[in-house]
Every structure is written in structure tokens, then in C-alpha cells.
UniProtKB/TrEMBL annotation:
EC number: 7.6.2.11
MF GO annotations: ABC-type putrescine transporter activity; ATP binding; ATP hydrolysis activity
GO cellular component term, pick one: ATP-binding cassette (ABC) transporter complex
Quaternary organization: The complex is composed of two ATP-binding proteins (PotA), two transmembrane proteins (PotB and PotC) and a solute-binding protein (PotD).
Protein task: Part of the ABC transporter complex PotABCD involved in spermidine/putrescine import. Responsible for energy coupling to the transport system.
Record-stated family: Belongs to the ABC transporter superfamily. Spermidine/putrescine importer (TC 3.A.1.11.1) family.
Pfam families on file: ABC_tran (PF00005), TOBE_2 (PF08402)
Source species, domain of life: Bacteria
Name of the protein in its database record: Spermidine/putrescine import ATP-binding protein PotA
Domain ABC transporter: 6-236
Keywords: ATP-binding, Cell membrane, Membrane, Nucleotide-binding, Translocase, Transport
Reaction(s) this enzyme catalyzes, per UniProt: ATP + H2O + polyamine-[polyamine-binding protein]Side 1 = ADP + phosphate + polyamineSide 2 + [polyamine-binding protein]Side 1
Length: 346
């Protein structure tokens, strides 16, 4: 394996008594798109600040390209940050905003002009150099902020919830653009969001955080299909979760029946949580269903109906179906063994 570009080894961060990061360890490979995903306050910004060098770890080691950087100041790290509020200078035009860092480094005017022009092209703002920041839309300001970071030719770009201020349509467009940009440049992106759909759409790898800990890491598909526990299952996508019990390696019991499943690794007799995604359930007749539920309500969501019902044990079941159901009726639910995902409690 290639040497990771960033490594955290048992990093802790606390402010007095408050533990903000608790034994965080990970490796970041060069050239991939990583996302830190988790609810507000779980420590995402803190991790970026430690990578950038704006804050110091209380314990543990941070390595950049294999070298310990705990004591290396921010301006000596080949890392740049795009902040949540973009932090652009309102009294400078686009060109000067981007050129600012290069001027501080005393780069010559000719080179500055060349480099600014180049990054403006990268973010598709060719010819916008003379515009004032106040004349730029939200999406354009976003791109100026990215251009300003890219002009320093960082090896790692840190992006702290850069899309959260944009409206839905623009946000979706920018998701594609950022992903394309990352692929084109081949530099490492570490992107922070609390939006699971954004994380799934954009990332090579996702780290799911909760209360200062990484509780699962993996590709979007791994995390969606095989969440490690109820928190991840609920946080990423919609899920039906009911209590169950392992009978054997490939057999699990829930709602009073046993079902074939393909999830291994659990002991027989172990109490588990059983998850099935709403889109993996389909409506059928009561006789043909593996489970039977009474339909409580149904909403038309455009791409599907969202049908909510309950089984005889009182568990709620959400089904995404292209077929309608009748409120108050009893229906059967069918699903395949591979749609059953078994999780340990916690
Ligand atoms: P996120 O970006 O995931 O929303 P942060 O990394 O900003 O979370 O913060 C994680 C926790 O650390 C929060 O509970 C926050 O209140 C706390 N925190 C962050 N900075 C400081 C600070 N300078 N002093 C005390 N607590 C802080
Ligand atoms: Mg934050």
C-alpha cells in the first residue's frame, strides 16, 4: 500500500474537561475524496483544524506524508481550507481575493497573474477576475473560495460544509462540480458535511462520526448496505429496524418467524437488531407475504409511495412502493434473504 498522506494515531482533543475527540485513528490515501459525516457537534471541524494546524492535539500523533507534524505550523503544511462561510475579503475583487496568499509569499506579479488565471479557469470563472465579491452569487463565491485555496497548490484540500449555505438546486450542481474537480486535479479532498445524501453521492470513503469518535468508515455502498449499528443505519438513509435473535449463522428470527439471511459473523442465540431498507420491501398479498402488516398511512412522494404500517408485534414498517395500498387494509411484505441486515446492539 502507498504511504498514507495523512495519519491520525489515537488523537485526543479536549478543552479542559470537555472531550471533543476521543482516540481518533485513521489513514487518508492520496488522491481520494473523503467525507467526514456526522451530526452537529461531533468533532468534524475539530479534525480539519488539527489537520490544517489551526489547533493542537491534546494527545496522539498526526502525520503528514509519514512525518509527525504536531509541532509544524499551519503555513508550513501543504494543506488548504475552504471555510463554511468562505471567509472572502469583501473589499477586494475576485482576482485580489485569490492572489492574496501569493502576495504574502512575495510571488512576482507575472506569476500571480498566470496562476490566478489558471485557477479561475479550473473553477469555471474565467474572466471574472475584476468582479467585486458583492456582485457574485452564492455559488460563484463558493468557487472563488475554492480557487483561493487551489492557487496555493495544496496536496490536501479541506472543505468544511462548503455547500450548506446554497439552495438545493445549486447544491446538487456543486456536488457534481466538486467531485469532477477532485477527479480532474487528483488531489486529496477532505469534505465535511452533516448531509448523508451529499456524503453518499460524492465520496470515495466516508468516516461516520459520533461524539468525537469514528464509528464506521468505508465506501458509500458499504456503509449504506452494512451499517455497523442502529445509529449509522438511521443516520444514513431510512431503515426499518426490529429486534431479533440469531438462530444459526444464516438464519435469524424476528416478528415470531425465522428467516434465511446471508449475514454471517453472529453467534447463535445472540440478540440482534434486524434492518431492512424501505426500498427492499415490496407489497404483496397477505398469503404471499413473508411478513404481514396493517397499513396506517401512505404518502405520495413522486418516485414512490411511502407506506407506513405495523405488524402484530407493534413494530413499524416503512415501505417504498410504486404500488398504492389501502389505508386500514392488511398486506403482505416480501423481501429477499440478502436484503436482511443483522446488526449488534449498541
Ligand atoms: P462539528 O464541526 O462536528 O459540528 P466541532 O468540531 O466544531 O463539531 O465541535 C465539537 C465539539 O467541540 C462541540 O461540542 C463544540 O462545542 C466543542 N468545541 C469546539 N471548539 C471549542 C473550543 N474552542 N472550546 C470549547 N469547546 C469547543
Ligand atoms: Mg463544524
Amino acid at each position: 500500500m502507498k504511504e498514507p498522506i495523512i495519519t491520525f494515531k489515537k488523537v485526543k482533543k479536549n478543552y479542559d474537561e470537555t472531550v471533543v475527540l476521543n482516540n481518533v485513528s485513521f489513514d487518508i490515501e492520496q488522491g481520494k475524496f473523503y467525507t467526514l459525516l456526522g451530526p452537529s457537534g461531533c468533532g468534524k471541524t475539530t479534525i480539519l483544524r488539527l489537520i490544517a494546524g489551526f489547533d493542537e492535539a491534546s494527545q496522539g500523533e498526526i502525520l503528514l506524508e509519514g512525518k509527525r507534524v504536531n509541532d509544524i505550523p499551519a503555513n508550513k503544511r501543504k494543506v488548504n481550507t475552504v471555510f463554511q462561510d468562505y471567509a472572502l475579503f469583501p473589499h477586494m475583487n475576485v482576482f485580489e481575493n485569490i492572489a492574496f496568499g501569493l502576495r504574502i509569499k512575495k510571488v512576482s506579479q507575472t506569476i500571480i497573474e498566470e496562476k490566478v488565471k489558471e485557477v479561475l479557469k479550473m473553477v469555471q470563472l474565467d474572466g471574472f477576475g475584476n468582479r467585486e465579491i458583492s456582485e457574485m452569487s452564492g455559488g460563484q463565491r463558493q468557487r472563488v473560495a475554492i480557487a483561493r485555496a487551489l492557487v496555493n497548490e495544496p496536496e490536501v484540500l479541506l472543505l468544511d460544509e462548503p455547500l450548506s449555505a446554497l439552495d438545493l438546486k445549486l447544491r446538487t450542481d456543486m456536488q457534481y462540480e466538486l467531485r469532477e474537480l477532485q477527479k480532474r486535479l487528483g488531489i486529496t479532498f477532505i469534505f465535511v458535511t452533516h448531509d448523508q445524501e451529499e456524503a453518499l453521492a460524492m465520496s470515495d470513503e466516508i468516516f461516520v462520526l459520533r461524539k468525537g469518535k469514528i464509528i464506521q468508515s468505508g465506501t458509500p455502498v458499504d456503509i449504506y448496505d452494512e451499517p455497523i449499528n442502529r445509529f449509522v443505519a438511521d443516520f444514513i438513509g431510512e431503515s426499518n429496524i426490529v429486534p431479533g435473535n440469531m438462530i444459526e449463522d444464516n438464519c435469524v428470527e424476528f416478528v415470531g418467524k425465522s428467516f434465511e439471511c446471508v449475514d454471517g459473523g453472529m453467534k447463535s442465540n445472540e440478540s440482534v437488531e434486524v434492518m431492512i431498507r424501505p426500498e427492499d420491501l415490496s407489497l404483496t398479498t397477505v398469503e404471499n407475504g413473508k411478513l404481514q402488516v396493517k397499513v396506517d398511512s401512505q404518502l405520495f412522494r413522486g418516485v414512490h409511495y411511502e407506506i407506513v404500517g405495523h405488524d402484530d408485534d407493534g413494530n413499524e414498517w416503512v415501505v417504498h412502493s410504486t404500488r398504492k395500498a389501502k389505508e386500514g387494509s392488511r398486506v403482505g411484505l416480501s423481501f429477499e434473504p440478502e436484503d436482511i441486515h443483522v446488526m449488534r446492539f449498541n
